[in-house]
Automatic annotation (TrEMBL):
Alphabetized Pfam families for the sequence: GFO_IDH_MocA (PF01408), GFO_IDH_MocA_C3 (PF22725)
Native source organism of the sequence: Paenibacillus vulneris
Domain Gfo/Idh/MocA-like oxidoreductase N-terminal: 7-118
Full protein name: Gfo/Idh/MocA family protein
Domain GFO/IDH/MocA-like oxidoreductase as annotated: residue spans: 138-262
SUPFAM superfamilies recorded: Glyceraldehyde-3-phosphate dehydrogenase-like, C-terminal domain, NAD(P)-binding Rossmann-fold domains
PANTHER family in the cross-refs: D-GLUCOSIDE 3-DEHYDROGENASE (PTHR43249:SF1), UDP-N-ACETYL-2-AMINO-2-DEOXY-D-GLUCURONATE OXIDASE (PTHR43249)
UniProt lineage: Bacteria, Bacillati, Bacillota, Bacilli, Bacillales
Domain of life: Bacteria
Length: 394
């Protein structure tokens, strides 16, 4: 266990992200990876020998070994819940990959266990990897919104189609692209960070109306294209488009308020600042074709800060050492998950869904999809697939 300030860590899940976290932790001071878990014995034995750590195919045995202060959970989505709950019950700090869980009900189960354990161990840390919050451009955009520089918000539109994935991506793991293994598609996997940003900027919508295509361009059974409309208290309207099928794709956010507009695309923010309120001008102007004068400012980032995973991991370690709240408490992952589940449910039901979501209702719907699934994975030679997770952060 923790001694002389050194935090002993286990990594549960040694896929692309698990191996990335090992590399990052090996460069950090004050911590040491002591064990890893993978469900594949050959893989865990090979990596354990390479890293010089203990290897497990039984995560319960790993958690019970008595030498862990913290774990990073980087497994397929459904396992986030079971693994995290077992770790928290042993008072082991947890940093969980996005999404926090496959659906809201599982996230609520995790949070309930965490809150119960904190009654006995108040300094227990449960954090989530939503690294976009560390990016300077997103911090600036949030500041613009929170400080009211755009005034009353009227609408936003987000095209989020820069997540192109060939069929080979889904063929690599048996869990990907399925309701039983992944629990969702482009929303739950690729857009989890973007939808975390949506909640971070605008809060929880009061209703969602969405249309999704399931396996439209890929041989999968989950969504690979989504169009959604979101309604917020106070009149804000939002639109969101996501796809893993467009190349070249688009990542463009446009936020419109009475005092102007903010556009974010290609690591650049363009801020249009009105001289007066457009809504006020509508009411008092005597000019039938008049417009509001505005100034334009541009701010650009070079992307040198990187994707931010390492900063989230470092913050997690700091939160443990200093007995403080992490940058992204895992409970906050519940909000974006509710938006994701709401979009899927709206599409399946072909109707508007109101939030907060009935988590029991969505869990029943998901179990129905799993039960009646007739999907079969295509046969493919995985040893011919080239996998480099860093390509996802370009």
């Amino acid at each position: 266990m923790q001694e002389k300030g050194r935090i002993h860590i286990g990594i549960i899940g040694m896929g692309n992200m698990g191996k990335l976290y090992y590399e990052q932790l090996s460069r950090m001071e004050g911590c040491q990876v002591v064990s890893i878990w993978s469900q594949t014995e050959e893989k865990v034995n090979r990596l354990a020998a390479e890293y010089g750590v203990q290897g497990f195919t039984d995560y319960i045995a790993m958690l019970d070994a008595g030498n862990l202060d913290a774990v990073i959970v980087a497994t397929p989505h459904y396992q986030h819940t079971t693994v995290t709950i077992e770790a928290l019950r042993r008072n082991i700090h947890v940093l969980v990959e996005k999404p926090v869980a496959a659906h809201v009900k599982d996230a609520e189960r995790m949070i309930a266990v965490y809150e119960e354990q904190r009654r006995h161990k108040p300094d227990l840390v449960f954090a989530a990897i939503y690294q976009q919050r560390t990016a300077p451009e997103w911090q600036y955009i949030r500041q613009v919104v929170q400080e009211g520089k755009l005034g009353r918000l009227m609408r936003f539109a987000w095209f989020n189609t820069n997540w192109f994935r060939p069929q080979a991506y889904f063929n690599v793991g048996n869990w990907r692209g399925t309701w039983k293994g992944e629990g969702g598609g482009v929303l739950l996997n690729q857009c989890a960070h973007n939808l975390d940003m949506m909640w971070w900027l605008f809060g929880l919508p009061q209703s969602i109306t969405a249309t999704a295509a399931f396996g439209k361009y890929h041989h999968i059974e989950v969504e690979d294209e989504v169009h959604a409309m979101l309604e917020y208290p106070g009149g804000l309207m939002g639109s969101f488009v996501a796809s893993t099928s467009e190349c070249p794709g688009t990542d463009r956010l446009e936020i419109v308020g009475e005092y102007g507009k903010l556009v974010y695309e290609h690591k650049k923010v363009t801020l249009y600042q009105n001289a007066e309120s457009a809504l006020g001008y509508i009411q008092h102007s005597k000019r039938a074709f008049g417009t509001v004068r505005h100034d334009v400012a541009e701010i650009e980032w070079d992307g040198s800060a990187g994707p931010g995973h390492e900063r989230i991991v470092a913050d997690f370690l700091q939160a443990i050492a200093d007995r403080q709240e992490p940058l992204v408490p895992a409970a906050e992952g519940l909000h974006s998950l509710m938006i994701i589940n709401g979009m899927v449910l709206s599409s399946i039901r072909e109707s508007k869904v109101r939030l907060p979501l009935d988590s029991d209702e969505y869990e029943r719907e998901l179990q129905r999809l799993i039960k009646h699934s007739t999907y079969r994975k295509p046969e493919a030679s995985q040893d011919q697939v080239m996998v480099d997770v860093r390509e996802s952060f370009r």
